[in-house]
């Protein structure tokens, strides 16, 4: 059993997080319920920031809000001195609505719309991360019309395939993201460098997610450092910022062996130092974008167990009141999770079961073949490491309302996202007037 943050077994032999009994949380707020450990979130944010400070390295740590974007998370990131990485107008709007400092917002995305770019320029955000030639045209045109000059980094694809699921690899040559280093990156750099509307600060790359092996970062930094050297020696262009993205892996099950945050940062700094020094390049300011590695292990999802089905000599299915609607990752990526029965933490009589969701899909399976303490209807199942890409990817499939979310700490629980209702589900439905008129006639 792997505990992180403030998770522990209390005197009732229940799972406790942030000094709050999870069984009581389920009673008070209902299930499914996302539970966030405030202490663990802050600890991770601080460790990223403090490690750079201890190494005396100029840096920006930007929370990748796509992992989980709420106003409360933006507040926490701001209080801990982080910048913010957004990838859509909705994330940008959330950040601005929370009062997050606009100069510390970085805007990513491979297909930013005209409206999103206008919103970002109007609010004078810190920097765009430019992804393609069309975006250069849009930013230049809109900035010119508004009489603005904007900061930007150019995203490049270093041609590195991280050892992770193919859907979350992003740095390989064949990717929808960024300019390849072979020919496109130089053309984009020349275009942006000479633009009157865009100030080019440096370059960005991101090789993937849930990464444990830092060799991919080393190869990517080496190739990007070669590009910086080319720009300096042949074109007299020098840049002071290097954004190495994020993707640092976390613990989901015992199969995962992530490095510590300090190790990730220290290794990254050493790699940049090595490759830039070898090429007589000035050491750049390092930007990184951790998302999952901040919020992932700080999240736990609580479910209520319902029906079960035993297929002799094959397996026993145990169903919960959520599933792929609140956590699509197992269906999308074959993601694996660990879990416990929150109200039976002292029960050592284990039973191997598979956890099924309630969606009308055979593929709605949260966990295959896990040993749990004799799960029964009404028990509370706690699934660990669900802070990242669960709520942010949740849907209303089968017209199921999205769960509530609470932030726990110091024995208190604060509701930070309310549970959706059935009225929320139908609030945007519109019945054509001709249907209503026909119904009125038929009722006469």
Automatic annotation (TrEMBL):
Substrate binds at residues 292, 329, 333, 361, 389. The active site is at 360 (proton donor). It is an enzyme of class 4 (lyase). The keyword Amino-acid biosynthesis applies. It catalyses: meso-2,6-diaminopimelate + H(+) = L-lysine + CO2. The keyword Isomerase does not apply. Keywords: Amino-acid biosynthesis, Decarboxylase, Lyase, Lysine biosynthesis, Pyridoxal phosphate. Pathway: Amino-acid biosynthesis; L-lysine biosynthesis via DAP pathway; L-lysine from DL-2,6-diaminopimelate: step 1/1. One of its GO terms (molecular function) is pyridoxal phosphate binding. Pyridoxal 5'-phosphate binds at residues 247, 289-292, 389. The modification N6-(pyridoxal phosphate)lysine is found at residue 66. One of its GO terms (biological process) is lysine biosynthetic process via diaminopimelate. Its cofactor is pyridoxal 5'-phosphate. Residues 40-295 form the Orn/DAP/Arg decarboxylase 2 N-terminal domain. Its EC number is 4.1.1.20. Belongs to the Orn/Lys/Arg decarboxylase class-II family. LysA subfamily. Specifically catalyzes the decarboxylation of meso-diaminopimelate (meso-DAP) to L-lysine. Homodimer. This is Diaminopimelate decarboxylase.
């Amino acid at each position: 059993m792997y505990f992180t943050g403030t998770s522990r077994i209390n005197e009732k032999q229940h799972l406790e997080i942030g000094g709050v009994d999870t069984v009581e949380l389920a009673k008070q707020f209902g299930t499914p319920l996302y539970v966030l450990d405030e202490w663990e979130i802050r600890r991770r944010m601080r460790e990223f920031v403090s490690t750079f400070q201890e190494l005396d390295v100029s840096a920006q740590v930007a929370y990748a809000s796509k992992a989980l974007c709420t106003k409360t998370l933006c507040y926490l990131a701001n209080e801990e001195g982080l910048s913010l990485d957004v990838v859509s107008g909705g994330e940008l709007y959330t950040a601005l609505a929370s009062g997050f400092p606009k100069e510390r917002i970085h805007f990513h995305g491979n297909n930013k719309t005209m409206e999103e770019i206008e919103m970002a320029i109007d609010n004078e955000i810190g920097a765009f991360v430019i992804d393609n030639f069309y975006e250069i045209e849009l930013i230049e045109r809109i900035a010119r019309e508004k009489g603005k000059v904007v900061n930007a980094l150019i995203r490049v694809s270093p041609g590195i395939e991280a050892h992770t699921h193919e859907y979350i690899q992003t740095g390989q040559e064949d990717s929808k993201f960024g300019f390849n280093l072979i020919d496109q990156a130089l053309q984009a750099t020349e275009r942006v460098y000479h633009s009157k509307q865009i100030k080019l600060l440096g370059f960005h790359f991101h090789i993937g997610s849930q990464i444990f092996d830092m060799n991919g970062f080393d190869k990517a930094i080496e190739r990007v450092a070669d590009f910086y050297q080319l720009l300096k020696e042949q074109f007299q262009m020098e840049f002071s910022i290097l954004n190495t993205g994020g993707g640092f892996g976390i613990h989901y099950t015992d199969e995962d062996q992530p490095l510590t945050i300090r190790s990730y940062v220290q290794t990254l700094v050493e790699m940049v130092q090595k490759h830039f020094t070898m090429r007589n390049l000035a050491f750049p300011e390092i930007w990184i974008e951790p998302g999952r590695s901040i919020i992932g292990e700080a999240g736990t999802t609580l479910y209520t167990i319902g029906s079960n089905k035993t297929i002799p000599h094959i397996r026993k299915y145990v169903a919960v009141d959520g599933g792929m609607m609140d956590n699509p990752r197992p269906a999308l990526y074959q993601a694996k999770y660990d879990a416990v029965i929150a109200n039976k933490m002292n029960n050592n009589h284990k039973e191997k079961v598979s956890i099924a969701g309630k969606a009308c899909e055979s593929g709605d399976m949260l966990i295959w073949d896990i040993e749990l303490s004799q799960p029964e209807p009404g028990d509370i199942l706690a699934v660990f490491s669900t802070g990242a890409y669960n709520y942010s990817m949740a849907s209303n499939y089968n017209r199921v309302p999205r769960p509530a979310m609470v932030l726990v700490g110091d024995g208190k629980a604060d509701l930070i996202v309310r549970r959706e209702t059935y009225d929320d589900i139908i609030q945007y439905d519109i019945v054509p007037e001709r249907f209503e008129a026909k119904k009125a006639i038929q009722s006469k």
